[in-house]
UniProtKB/TrEMBL annotation:
The chain crosses the membrane at residues 6-25. It comes from the Bacteria. It holds the Pfam family Polyketide_cyc2. The keyword Transmembrane helix applies. Keywords: Membrane, Transmembrane, Transmembrane helix. Gene3D superfamilies: 3.30.530.20. This is Polyketide cyclase / dehydrase and lipid transport. The keyword Membrane applies. InterPro entries: Polyketide_cyclase/dehydratase, START-like_dom_sf. CDD domains: SRPBCC_1.
Length: 177
């Protein structure tokens, strides 16, 4: 019986330690990836300033060919909205709306993943070496949830890999012209 209580006590100490350490972890996560595209920003901008246009290069839509997509608002720019729903956990359900758009320079979006939380994403387009440097970024606040803070340590590898794939798809699409 002493052994069982000792194991329970040890387990409780580990759980309390993990929770305490979680509050020392960052409460915000930022992920970004960049790629050089051999094209002017004007050729790239339409592909990031419209949720409909992202279908052609999205790294997530190929994971579920049955994903349901619904568009609202204008065809592009501020207010252009995508709602998606998928039974595939890596695609999930959510809403993304363009909240700011500066032609050939920057597009900002707000994301709502339902119970998984809120985030913001952006595309920056900067002239570089005869082409355009495209940066795709993601920012989210993890709040006081200790589990979310631990998960935040993995966001860069999870989201970063998808962003790299998406940017490679975008580059291939734009450069194929």
């Amino acid at each position: 019986m002493k052994l069982v209580f000792g194991l329970l006590k040890g387990f409780a100490i580990v759980v309390v330690a993990l929770i305490a350490i979680a509050f020392l972890l960052p409460s915000e996560v930022s992920v970004s990836r960049s790629i050089q595209i051999s094209a002017p920003a004007a050729d790239i901008f339409p592909h990031v300033n419209s949720m409909q246009a992202t279908e052609a290069w999205s790294p997530w839509l190929s994971r579920d060919p049955n994903v349901e997509l619904t568009y609202e608002g204008p065809e592009d720019g501020v207010g252009n909205t995508l709602r998606w729903s998928s039974d595939e956990p890596s695609v999930g359900t959510g809403i993304q709306v363009i909240t700011a758009s500066t032609p050939n320079e920057r597009v900002e979006t707000a994301l709502d993943f339902g119970p998984q939380g809120l985030a913001n994403a952006y595309f920056d387009l900067e002239p570089a070496d005869g082409g355009t440097l495209v940066t795709w970024g993601f920012d989210t606040k993890l709040g006081m949830n200790p589990f979310a803070r631990w998960m935040g340590l993995m966001f860069d590898s999870w989201i970063g890999a998808d962003y790299e794939k998406g940017l490679a798809n975008l580059k291939a699409l734009v450069e194929a012209g």
